[in-house]
Amino acid sequence: MMSKEENKTNLIVNYLPQTLTEEEFRSIFLSIGPIKNSKIVRDKVTGNSFGFGFVEYESETDAQRAIQTLDGLPLQTKRLKVAIAKPGSENIKGCNIYVRNLPKHYTEKELNEMFGKYGKIVNSRVMIDLQTKESKTVGFVLYDTKEEADNAIAELNNKVPPSGTLPLLLKYADDSKKFRQPGQIQQQVQQQPSPPQQQQPFSQGYASFGGPRFPSPGGPMRTPAGNRFRFNPIGGPTNNPGLLNYNQNSFVTNNLGINAQGLKQENGGSSNVIFCYNIGNDTTERELWTLFKPYGTVLKCNALWDAQKNQCKGYGFVTMATWQEAAHAIQELNGYYFKNRPLSLSFKT
DNA sequence: TGGAATT
After folding, report:
1. What average pLDDT does range A179-201 have in this prediction?
2. What residues contact A99, with CB distance under 8 A and at least 6 apart?
3. Which of A12, A36, A76, A252 is the most exposed place for a label (fewest CB within 10 A)?
4. Looking at the domain that runs over A258-347, which CATH code has it been given?
5. Which chain B positions have some atom within 7 A of a protein CB?
6. pLDDT tens-digit profile of A13-38?
7. Architecture of domain A7-84
């Protein structure tokens, strides 16, 4: 058996949308290459996703390609973070610190400066209030090792930062494990993707400074904001500057009501139907469903069939549950390469 | 008193 230190094929994937199914998760990563296994980590009792998962590839090359291609992938209101998973046997628990009483003006930058002295920071965040956009003066710092976290708590707990007035309160973030304790059984895990579930409104995403983003120093490559790409679950990635034509800091604002590139609520706000042009002539309705599912509840997929040529006519229609979901899908997928063709998406007129 | 980074 290969020693765990050599294993560079197992990836940890963070910031998964809450509603992402195992099937969708797998299909995104399968587009890179063959997978040994994949799993979204869930609460054993409720089945709720913890928002992260694992994907193990058969080859290191594919694992690296998955990082290059999928790290930073926008999915619903989040951006995936993809990195090599540390071997489970390592001392990787208790590395996450919860911080209270941060000075109001602190962002991750100041947090990293303050905490970086005590070790390698894998991830950090400052929570902000969605309404006021102000810091909640609460944050998290995830270190690489337990020793670093221990050291930071010993050095910084109850200390008043240079620009602050209150002493910092530091705790191990998951010492209580409240949310993982067995509670009352609510419902069994639903394995089937159907029936269509109600999507969470865009505004329910969490926020930290910069919104869901490419987190802090120390981790593997971050896709820079200037190197945006679209991901095509079937045809592979391609550069496309049209994606996320708002800056990362406006993520939260955009989640509250999409208003991008000509997609305006006044052009009906009523049509849920997307006209999909240039889908090629071998595209199935199932493929369309897979393509659009990350953007909401797909009610109907239709690929028009040419009976004479016995092939798809090269266009179709996809009906989403709401105008917002349709707008979101158009915003994300228009111009995006699907089976080596740029999709042309618009509201059905 | 708080999100979701080790199955």
Report:
1. 34
2. A111, A138, A139, A140, A141, A168, A169, A170
3. A36
4. 3.30.70.330
5. 1-7
6. 999 999 999 999 999 999 999 999 99
7. 2-Layer Sandwich (3.30)
